[in-house]
Amino acid sequence: MNHNDVLRRVRFALRIDDIAAINIFQLAGYKMDIEYLKANMKKEEEPGYLPCRDSVMAMFLDGLIIKMRGAQTDAPPPQLAKGEYLSNNEILRKLRIALSFRDDDMLEVMKLGNFNMSKGEMSAFFRKPDHRNFKPCGDQVLRYFLLGLARKLRPDVANPTTDNDRPVNSPAVKKSLKKKTKPKRSASSQHKTENPAKPAGRIKVWHKPDGNEDKKRSPTKRR
């Protein structure tokens, strides 16, 4: 799961359009170009795709925290240093701060994403990496969280998908879900097809002759 997916799904869940996204980047001290933003929103197979860098994803989440919670200082938040990367644990932590979620809120979102976990398992994601109870957040866990977040914050969209970020009940997805399937045959009809009945007629029965049968027969004479 790359940062393009995360950026796209967070924007979908929070209803953030392009103008709002650019303003969020500005809050983090970054001037985002609209064309570059659109390229970061694309999928790998789409033309014009550009991978969203770790620093760009971090600035978006930092700006989101400022937008939702207010700025702590007048200075913009520090950017990632060269060579640093943004882990799934950090993404989950920044989203939790921006949304002011407690443990119960996080577990509720996970449950909405069809993933149940305990408070202990959840708290392990927010430990420091050198802590003995630290647990790395995998792509699948982050995907469940973003799916549950969309279901929690977008009640108008009952079942947002995880693959194409479009609601399942949209016309485009409904059309793709309609598959032409052959009607299932009953067991009797299938049996008839696989074992067609032979036409009625005389049944020839072969039997092993006994030893006296040749003696009973009279020799045939050739004319």
Automatic annotation (TrEMBL):
It comes from the Bacteria. Residues 175-185 have a biased composition (Basic residues). Transmembrane segments: none annotated. InterPro entries: YehS-like. Pfam families: DUF1456 (PF07308). Residues 207-217 have a biased composition (Basic and acidic residues). Residues 156-223 are annotated as: Disordered. This is DUF1456 domain-containing protein. It comes from Alteromonas lipolytica.
